[in-house]
Amino acid sequence: MSTVEATSRHNKQIVQHVFDALANSDPQPLLAHLSDDFRFVIMGSGSWSRSFDGKDTVLAELFAPLRTRLGRITTIPLRLIAEGEYVVVQAHGRNTTSDGRAYNNSYCNVLRLADGRITEWVEYCDTLLIETVLGPPSAVTSGSR
C-alpha cells in the first residue's frame, strides 16, 4: 500500500468516526480532532458565507450560536471519498430549530487533515435555506429569531 493510500484510509476512518458521532448528535469526536488552526468555510454568497479562522473563533462564532439555535445537531453521512489529506463527505442534516422549524440541509463537505487533525472544513450547502430558517448570523448570535 502506498503512503497516499495509507493516508487516505487513515483520514477516512477519522472522518467516518466523526460523522458517525454527528449522526447521533455527538460533537465530541469532532471537537477532539480539530486542530488549533482549524478553518471552517461556508461557501456561497449569503450572509453566512465566510471563513471562520482558528478553532476558538469557529467554536465561539459558528458552533456555539448554531447549538443555541438548533440544540441537538444531527448530520448523517451518505458518502465519503478520500484521497490523501482530503476527505469529501456528502451528508444530510436532520434538525429542528428551537422554535420548532425543520432545518434539513444537504451538504458536500471537503475536509483536510494533517497528522490526524482536521485543519480545514469547506462546506457547500443551501445558504438560502440557512437564511430562510435560521435568519442572518446576527439573529442567531443575539437569539432574536
Defining traits:
39% helix; six-stranded mixed β-sheet; alpha+beta; 145 residues; single chain; two-stranded antiparallel sheet; globular; Nuclear Transport Factor 2, Chain: A
Summary, kept brief:
The chain is built from five helices and eight strands, in the order ααββαββββββαα. It is an alpha+beta fold.
Topology:
Elements: H1 3-22, H2 28-33, E1 34-42, E2 51-53, H3 55-70, E3 75-83, E4 86-93, E5 95-96, E6 102-103, E7 106-114, E8 117-125, H4 127-134, H5 137-142
Parallel strand pairs: 1-8
Antiparallel strand pairs: 1-2, 3-4, 4-7, 5-6, 7-8
Structure report:
This protein has helices at 3-22, 28-33, 55-70, 127-134, 137-142, and strands at 34-42, 51-53, 75-83, 86-93, 95-96, 102-103, 106-114, 117-125. The chain has 145 residues and is of the alpha+beta class. It has a single domain (3-137), classed as Nuclear Transport Factor 2, Chain: A (Roll). A six-stranded mixed sheet has the order 2-1-8-7-4-3. A two-stranded antiparallel ribbon has the order 5-6. A hairpin with a 2-residue loop joins strand 3 (75-83) and strand 4. The longest helix is centred in the first third of the chain and has 20 residues, at 3-22.
- Residue ranges: pLDDT <50 for 5 or more in a row? none
Strand order of the largest sheet: 2-1-8-7-4-3
What is the domain total for the residues?
1
Q: In this structure, how is the largest beta sheet organized?
A: 6 strands, mixed
By CATH reckoning, the class would read Alpha Beta
